[in-house]
Amino acid sequence: MTVLKTSMRNFVAHKGRMALSAIAVLLSVAFVTGTLVFTDTANATFDRIFQATAADVSVAPKDADDEELRRSGALPTLPAAEVARLAKVEGVRSAHGDVNTEAVTVVDRDNDDIGPSSGAPTIATNWDENERRAVEITSGHAPRGPTEMMVDADTADAKDLKLGDELRVITAHGEFRAKISGIATFQVTNPGTTLVYFDDATAQRELLAAPGRFTGVGMTAEAGVSHEELKRKVLAALGPAAADYDVRTQDEAAEANQKELSGELDILKYVMLGFAGVAVLVGIFLIVNTFSMLVAQRTREIGLMRAIGSSRRQINRSVLTEALLLGVVGSVLGIFGGIGLAVGLMKLMAGAGLKLDTSELTVKTATPVIGLVIGVVVTVIAAYIPARRAGRISPMAALREVGTPASAKAGRVRAVLGLLLTAAGAAGLVAAARADKAADGGLALAGGILFTLVGFIVVGPLLAGLVVRVLSAVVLRVFGPVGRMAERNALRNPRRTGATGAALMIGLALVACLSVVGSSLVASADEQLDRSVGADYIIESDNRPITPQVEQRIKAVPGLDHVTVNKGLEDAEITVPGGRKVTKELTAADPTYARDLRLETVAGDLDDAYGDRSMSVNEGFAKDHRIKVGDRLTVDFAQGGTAELTVRAITSDDTLFDKGAMYLSLETARAFIKAGDLPPTEVMFAAAKDGEEDAAYAALKQVLDPFPQVDVRNQADYKELLEDQMGQLLNMVYGLLALAIIVAVLGVVNTLALSVVERTREIGLMRAIGLSRRQMRRMIRLESVVIALFGALLGLGLGMAWGTTAQRLLALEGLKVLEIPWPTIAGVFIGSAVVGLLAALVPAFRAGRMNVLRAIATD
């Protein structure tokens, strides 16, 4: 009880000093709990909509869930007669055929795509009984013929659509127009999908180009018949044909959809938790420093407690109890902060098109428990070393005010251990840079990053003594005596300076590493684009097929030398020498593709691979299966048809674009695959006639203006796109890393604030002998700047080493250009100095306001 009272008294007495540490715990816990609440809410939202839209029992052809097929429009279907047969199964109250596709673009009168900008799909479907589970017609009526359609209310509101508006619908098979006859409102949260509805006949004819066929069947069970029982009866009715279908209950269909989506949400969750982990790690340094300084400041008090009978265990327990209180307070606040963060993320995502209703916020029981455990455990672990140090204080030494015992031997051991760890990490980085295989190098890189990071943290005090002196000679000496005093203050406790700088080092090391990797990726892509891509224009569709109508318009553009069509042939089964069958994707293209993408060959001529009954294979595939030019391979196409093709070329794997691709001509593909079964075009290339590049580009832009789902880019546009995409990714990463940097800045503030308190008498004496308030504030600010620059220098150096090594591994995958983003590195270094100045504002102000006489009289 005495220990608890003492701990409570100390905690309250130092509440101001504990506040910044509590904020670090709060931010770390908030990021963890906010991530969990956000992803749990998203999962729950999608689960509700999947449950609402799933039939009691559904039947769909195999591969109907394949994402590529959904986007291409080449969906497997079943005849209407199958729907009628399943409607007669015992226990079925009603059965309805479904038409569902994502290979559709809907544009308004201004040729603007009404689909979501968040990446969510536009789904076109037929209006039937099952749709009434999720939506209700709140305006107008359901579509009744080929000129009518219905849209969801969220899309109508977002795109300012109303009844009677005519929309143009572009499908994988052509286009048609229809007017809005009705608007349907979701009865559950719509996370951002655009839905358009048609009557059965229009959906079959226009969306599938398959009158009388459906993409699936939904059945409603009679009263008293369970979903599982109905599924068994449907399977029995299908008989041997059941092997060709996926038969699912409502729960199974919802689970399958959720599983498909949860993979992407899980990636987001684990990435965010990874950054939260970085913030937690940085927070540990802040807490260690806080308790170390508090223990040092209470040396005499601890000595008195030991002198009157307190044991080492009681002193240890007292400090850990304070840490426990700090962890509980910070964690509880962090849990509420995390819920607020989740709400903020949901509103931010709503602006990007992903709509999650905050009224359906999902906070699982485990979430606050996880947050509380993380906050408390991390805080107690961080305070353990200072607590042990407090327990080891000798009563007589404490009463003589010699402070906590400092062991020169311990310092030497720490320095040796840190150097060994750093050397081991450096060896790992060197091994990774020299690796012949990316997989082997990846393990060495991970080990190198871990050991160099830990090594720099352990050897931090030794580095502080060296680096701070160098930085001071460059930065501080120009400020005269004040600068020298700031240098001595930073060097007075190298362990404290090292820990404070290490907190900032971690965040900036990750920033530097990712900057190097990102810049190298873009530079490598630009270099490969210049070296490999011969086409003047690249024409792509946004995850949707390029329709034959668009193809014909592109081919008719004046000023073009040639146009190349490229089609991906999914899951072709290739019989290699020895009789083994291997499933690979083949690329069917016009022969001009050999000019549009200038790939190097290690054997044969790529032009010959586009000849009759010929093909190419990539270098890795040829080595794995001992294939050489002239070999004949049997190819079974997924779309039907079997061909004997001769290998005419082996392409090099030393490329970024189309790495691993295997080619044949479109004419060869058409000889063995029925015209209606060929997959749609997703990318095209074009080259202009000499001197007509600008005119042809303008003509292409004009021709494709009515088709917003199709983009045409020249090489400069494509480079800009790559840079923008990488820039957006890096900005998002930097935003997440900002949390760790904020915690590190709090560490600098806390170190300075406690250091000012620790040096109260010294500050009073300096003021008494003539140091002005302004000089005092400048000294504190310069001390802060040099600590921040120390952490930045270590972090940026370490991060560039990591990034350079990672680039050497990426070079094995064709990314051979190393690009150091010096402006970013310089900006971060200068920004660190600014951060140091800002972090010192409050401590410097407090130091300048001290009463001289009271400061001198302080014990």
UniProtKB/TrEMBL annotation:
Domain spans labelled ABC3 transporter permease C-terminal: 275-395, 736-851
Pfam families per UniProt: FtsX (PF02687), MacB_PCD (PF12704)
Entry keyword set: Cell membrane, Membrane, Transmembrane, Transmembrane helix
Localization, UniProt: Cell membrane
Main location per the UniProt record: membrane
TM region positions: 270-296, 323-346, 366-387, 415-433, 445-478, 499-523, 732-757, 782-802, 822-845
InterPro entries: ABC3_permease_C (IPR003838), MacB_PCD (IPR025857), Macrolide_Exporter_MacB (IPR050250)
Membrane topology note: Multi-pass membrane protein
Domain of life of the source: Bacteria
Domain MacB-like periplasmic core: 19-234, 500-702
Family classification: Belongs to the ABC-4 integral membrane protein family.
Full protein name: FtsX-like permease family protein
